[in-house]
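The records we work with from here on pair a chain with its fold. Taken together, the tokens spell out the fold as the letters spell out the chain. The record below shows the convention in full.
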Amino acid sequence: MSTNPLFPPSDKPAEATNDPAVALIRSKVSRAYSEEPNAVQELAEVQSTQRLLSKHQRYMQTLSGSGKSLAEIQTAWHKYYITLSDPEKHEVWQEFYAANQHTPYQKLFQKQQPIGRSPLVPAPANFRPTPAENGVVVADHTPAIPKPQKKPIFDGPVVQQIKQKLSSTISANGQLTIKHHLQSLGFGLASGMVVLILFLFTFFNEYIIAPFIQPSRNVSSTPIILTSNTVAADAPPSVTIPKINIQIPLNFSVTSYNEADVENGLKGGVVHYPNTVMPGQNGNGAYFGHSSGNIFNNGKYKFAFTLLHDLTTGDIFYITYGGKTYAYQIFAREIVPPSDVGVINDTQGKQATATLITCDPPGISTNRLVLWGEQISPSPNTNAAAPAATVSGQPTQLADNGPSLWNRFVGWAEFWN
């Protein structure tokens, strides 16, 4: 009885016929379907085989039946493979080797190597592979005819004389004279001058010296909020920044926007900009300090604000003035061109602020780093009103780090010329 669902079982006997051809065809069809395996049994076997496949094999089987092109299947498999963990990648290779353990190495990786040679053994010098014939690469073991060695073009007594002369000139035949010692000394001095010039021109401006300069090492224990009780009445004006471990004097004596006056004031510390408010007054007080300078610049505060770029919003700094200490919390920072003098003006929406300004990058006067801090102690409600301006006009640009080492050398050269 047939189990084919297309031909359901029937007890009705086949119609009789006297045609031998029809009878023959019917007998063949009957035998073919009588030997057909049970469809339900085959389905069960396929499902059991599916359960035996690993997840990698099932994924590949899904790709194979997706109707995608070979290139798309390879791309999808690569994306799947690179997301696997190392143990899972190891499983993939184990399954690959198990499935291809009887496949020759050359066919497996499509290497054009002669059958019978190990891929790890290098071919002999006279080995010359021939084109593949019927899928098999045949090795040609015919010994290669050695090429005749060419005689050097430059050979003879003249060349030997040149070699001897060069040898005696370079090595002095093993005997060094005063001339050779002086040449070595001159070379050493010249090299040293080059290194010194590179060091002075390149590295003194912040990159080697400045990061290790900290004007004070005694402020790391500064409390978050200071009161007047912790400051002496005659304490000199200063700015204290615990995060970068500095405490530097403040100079309130500069009354001009002239660059020379500002530079002269910077020799004694951080300069307070004229026409900006003092601590304890409503408005914005602006303070400028050097980020770095060259070795020939005057003053001991050339590296006052070198590490100012380490500060960020939320950090605290303190200004001591008139026997009181005012605490400011940074709420904004920005890098601006030197011509942006508006940063020293009052800050909109803030009652009392202090602005710290320095050159950026340290050692170079290309831009200015500006940090704004809002007064948090004592309460700005006790501040006095801002006084009237005492200096006429506005600065044309913010102060800089002073003359660079290159400018000084150029000035000296022009002076002597």
